[in-house]
Each structure stands twice: as C-alpha cells, then as structure tokens.
Amino acid sequence: MENIYRGEPILKGEFIEKLNQLKQDIEKDLLLEPLMPNVVIEAAHRLSKKINQQEVVQQLLLLGVPKWAAEDYVKVTIDSLGREALAKKVNIELGENPFEWKRINEGIEEKNQPLGVIMHIGAGNTLGLSAFSVIEGLLTGNINILKLPENEEGISSKLLMGLIEIEPRLKPYIYVLDVSSRNKEVISKLIDVANGVAVWGSDEAIGAVRLLAPPSLPIIEWGHRLSFAYFSKNDNEEEALVGLAKDICLTDQLYCSSPQCVFYETDNTDELNDFAHRLSKHIANVAEEYPSAVRAFDVQAQITWTHELIKMEELLEKKRLIIDEKKQFSVMIDYNAELKPAPLYRNIWVMPIKREGLLGLLRVHKGHLQTVGLSCRNEDINELSDIFYAAGICRITTCGHMSIHYTGEPHDGIYALGRYIRKVNRRYGR
Amino acid sequence: MTAREKLFAYNNIYDQEGSNDLFCEAMKESIQHHSSHCQLYQRFLEAKRFYVECIKSVDDCKKIPAIPAHFFKYHEVLSINKDDIEVHATSSGTEGQKSQIFLDSDSIKLGTKMAIKAMKYHGLISLIPTNYLMLGYEPKEGNEMGNTKVAMGMTRFAPAKEKVFALRAMGDRYEVDYFGIINALKRFNKQKLPVRIMGFPSYLYMLLKMMKDSGIKPLRLNKRSLVLTGGGWKKFDDIMIDKKELYQMVEEFLGIPSKNCRDFYSAVEHSVAYPECENHHMHVPIWSRVIIRDVKSLEPLGFNQPGFLSFISPLVSSMPISSIVMGDMAVLKDGKDCGCGIVTPYFEIIGRMGTSKARSCAVAASEYMKGE
Fold first, then answer.
1. Taking the model in full, what pTM does it have?
2. Partner B contacted by A309 (CB < 8 A)
3. Angle at CA of residue B190, ends B193 and B178, nearest 5°
4. In terms of domains, do B129 and B255 share one?
C-alpha cells in the first residue's frame, strides 16, 4: 500500500476521488493543537530502533545496490532518524524551543509558525529521501502531502506508515500519493491546498512545478548539483588520490556531492597524464575492495558511448581514455578544461586547469555547484576557497569526505527547516 | 563500373543473399577509398588494427570498426575535396549541436537511385495528382536540415497539386499553422484526390489529437492516400504513443488505411532509408547491413537481443561513415517471421540512449547542461 490519506492507507483511485474533500479536511486540521518537534523526534527515534536492517538490505540488493552500499545506506538512515541527531538538527536550524513566544521588545513577541501545508515532490535518485523530506515538514509542524517519485519501490511510504503506527497523533499530518508528474490535473489540485512546495529533482522537474504553481506560492527547490575535485601540487597528493578514489567508488558518483571531474593545476600534458594514471591505479585498488554492481543496460550504453567518442578524439589528441581490462572504471582525460558531468559509475573526467581562469569556468554553472574535494598546500587553502565560494560552491572538503555529511549540515547552503516555517509576531498591551 | 555502382544498380532490393559478394566488394572499395582519402580515417583504422585485407567475406564487414555518429556533431571529416561537396545537411535535432553531413554528387546520385527503387518496390510511386501536407519545416534559405531536404525530395514520387506546410517560416523562426493545416485537410477532403501526409510522427499525433479534442468531424480522405513519417519523436518522447495506436487514429480521423501508413528510419549520418513494409517492419535492403552491438563490448549480437544500432554501407563516399554506430538502442529480428514476403532481417528501435530516468543527480544535471 503506497498511498496514504490523512494517515490511513488508501488506494490511489480513492485518494483521487477524495481530492474535493481534501481542502475541508486540511482546513479542520490546521486548527489542531500544534504538533511539537519532540513528538516527531520520539516517533522517529522509535522507528529507527524498529527498522529491520536485514530486510531493507535485501530489498536494496534486489534494486541492484551493492551489498556494502546497502548496508551503509541502512546505517546512515538509522543514525539520522535517531533522537540525538534530530534534536541536534532542530536545535541548530531553529534554535531552542522554536515554537514558543519570545519577547523582542516591550510588548512585542515573535515565534516560529509552520508554513501550514507543504507539498513535497520527491526525486527518485536517493532512496527514501522523500520520507526524510516529509519528516522535516513534520519537525516544523506542517501538514505534508508527498508526491512519490518513480522507481522508489515503496520505501518512503513504508517508513511513513511505520511512523504513523508508532505515533497515531501524526496521522492528520501525512498524505502520500503515487501519481505521475504528467498528471497535471491532480498535481494542480494538491498544489492548490499547499502553502509551499518542496521540490526535489532535475531542473526540468523544478521548471514544471514553477509552471503549475501560482506566483504567490513559495517553492523550496532542492535541485541537482555538480561536484568535483581540485588538485594543486602538494606533498599529500597520493593520500588525497586514495581518498578521491573512495569518493568515486563508494558512491558510484551518484550523489550531488560525488565528483564528476578532477581538475589538476598544470599546463604540462605529461604531468596531467601521470596524474591520471596515478588516480586510475588507486581506483583499481579501491574497486577491488568494493566491486561495482552490475550496471543497467542503458547505463552501460551511455558509458560505452562516451568511451567510443573519447577514443575518436584520441586520434585528434584532444582526449585520452584510461580504462581497465574488465571495463569496470575509467579515467577520461580531456585536455580542455570544462566542468561537466561524467557518465558516472566510476568514470571520471580529469582536466588541466590554471587558477586564473577558474572562477569564470565555474561560474558558468552557478546555481548547480555543490562540493569541492580539495587537495593543495596549506598556504593555498584560503585563496582557493575564496574563489570556490565566490563561484557558488557550498562545501569544501578533503578528498575521501566529499559525500560524508555531519549532523545538522546545511543542504546546498541552506538550513532546510528554516524554509518550512515563518516568523509571526504580535504587539499587545496599549 | 565499380562494385558499388553495380550494387546500387542491382534490381531486387531485398535480395541480400544474391548480392552478398557484390556488397562485400563494394565495402572493400569504400574502406579503401576512405582510408586513402581521409587521414583521420586511416589513423582510426590503424589504431584499431584493421585493414581492407581483413574483409574476405560479407561476414567480415561486421568487423569494420564503427565510428559513433555523434562524433560528426563536433568534427568535420571529409573523404573528398571541399570543392566536391554538393549538399550540406544537418540532423533534424531541434536543440543542441547538430551533425554535419556533406555529400558529393556520386553519393547523391546513388542515394537517389536507391530511394526511387525503394519507393517503387513498396508501391509508393504514383502518377495521380496528389495534395501534400508536410508536417515539417517550410523550406527556406539557411535551413540545412536533411529531414526537410528528404521530405521535399519525397514529393517527387507523385505529382504535386498543392503543398501545405505545418511549420511556416515567420521571420527567423517557425510557427505551427494549425488553421492552415485543418483548412487544407478539409479542402483536400472535398477534392477527393489522394493526399500524402509527411513528416515527424510526433506532429502527426499532435494533429490527430487536436482533431479528436476539438471534435472535428473525421475526414474520409481518398483511400490511396499515404502517411509517410520519419525522424522519430525527438523532444516529444513524453507523449509518444505506440505505432499501432497512431495508425489506428489515422484510420479513424483521416480515413487512410493503416497499411498505407509507412514510417521511415533515416539518419543523416547514414543516409540509407528504411521504409516500413506493409506489416510495418523496417527490413534491411541490399545496400546496407544492420548490426546490433553489445552495449559493453560492441560485439555483434544475434536476433532479439538489444544493443546499439549500427550500420554498414558503401553508399557515401564523401565522409567515412561506411561503418557507424548510432545512439539508438534497437533489436534485430528474423525477417522470415514478418510474412510480408521480404525475408531480410528487420530492426526495431527500442529507445534512445540515456533517456531512461536513471536514479542519479548528476545525470539530470547533465541533461540540463547538454541542452538536449
């Protein structure tokens, strides 16, 4: 059962039939006693203890996720649902007792108030992500309507139903509908009752929501991002390359924070080639420990296609391909620097770069930039960081930590919870 | 007469068995020509350690290394002098970088012969005056799309009484002329002459859908009318419907029998056209061989196994595209199972590479940045 209406499982068709009633139900629930973060945190904590790890791992294996990645995923999920993690998140992002009145001046008070109703449009790229988006909406006291992404296999619905079973008080705050993005009629009706839309996904998905939503409706956009590694000659290069190889292999480059390209500060072709070869050796070592899963047909086609084009351009000495015998990974040298996505699954671009042109090269992609895995001399860190932040980068990490997040870390430069509330105030007395 | 010329003069266009040796000879000539007239191609073959001498039978043609078609989006590669270019065509992609194809008079001559023979074989040549509805771009100066050129050439197979274009040139852009289209169809309906509707299947579908949605009374066009589509759905992939469904709509709203609906596969990077037989299958003619290649090893696969669509043909002498691999995913099927009388294999496109919704951030970002 993937669809949920006001906390109760329901068939998709029945949910759609109830759309006319939705507005009334929600208007009643908006006047309920406010939902406090602690209720949500306790429920999530108990859910994290209840999750059958083996079962979820098995489910992920069936989806083609490698075993080690599945186990890691389950661990991260459980950790981030824990009491401590969520309480810290709320505290960092909203401050202490966020929903209590706070005195500002004589006779003036402020407090946080939920936006009201948030519609979440999920993305299929990270399993269960949609459920987290809803939990963020719950932590801020909102009523949440989730439009499920495709290819999700019911993971988000299952998590949310688990939450409801533990804490029935959450029922009025949770709706889930598995409807295609193409069904504009239904989506428009859902948007109609929302005070804000949180949309995860491609520029295309975000663009489609912008077209459907009235101009007065806030759209909270969590779009796709690009990340890369940056190397300037230093004494710890080898160590950083090992870390980078892990960043590449452990995520299969699937996350927004995974590296697509590596820039190496040099104008010497031989140096660049040598650098690329060193990287490929480290990838080979990591890949031995963490073998890749079988690639889907269309994924493999895309990779082969890119490789064949590179082989053609090798003849023109514009690019170069370093690939292992089993075709499990590749380092693709492009002698012309340009930030661009790789075909993923352990296929990484390597390019030469000069610091002078860096800002301009990156700014072409402002709005899509996220993480840099940086390896350079200590005295260069500040200069390079300034360039990266100015270009639109939000995270700078050491190589090996590109996709490792800390509790309460802002998402793409923003504290999510802050987007789901507003500040209300009152003046009283005479 | 060269083997290539003989091949294109050969009468039975689906007799691959009888023309195998000729095809093999023609391919040898073609590879010899390109490697001696195009330095890049010579380097390419050397890098792959392939030589003309490796071709001993028609089966060996599968081993000729294939160039990915997209390479021609970014590089101009010629096997002739620039002065000998007769026609410059681009792919019909509506956005992004387009493939650049240059043809010499020889290739055009053989290509024309080929097209006439194919049209004749399928009974698509007529002497009766015909009204044309072109669901594509109105020709104008500066439009180099191969698709427009082919469409215009296709109007020569039945004398044109009138040609109406769906996409009219308005200054420097094109606009869909809905009223013009509907008025023309109503006019053609009254005139009772055969009608030929040609163009992208997506536009045909949009036209039929509009007729359906706006409640326009179904037309009964002359039974000898034809619908000739080509070029695929392109950016309209998300509204794509099944071929059979589309042809049913044609029967319902235009009164043209389904067997008169023929889709063509063609690509500027290949230039051999593949019209559907009356059972709607694209059989491989004597001028080319279709190979489906494994998506990892690029090795040839057998019938019914999906992979890269790859073509081999000696048709074009101006560019080294004699062995090429397309960005389309396809399967090859045994032609004996078709039942139309043609026994050569036929292929079916199952999708374009990378259009499936992969679960990844970066892929979507890549789509955005490529602007495709």
1. 0.88
2. yes
3. 100
4. yes
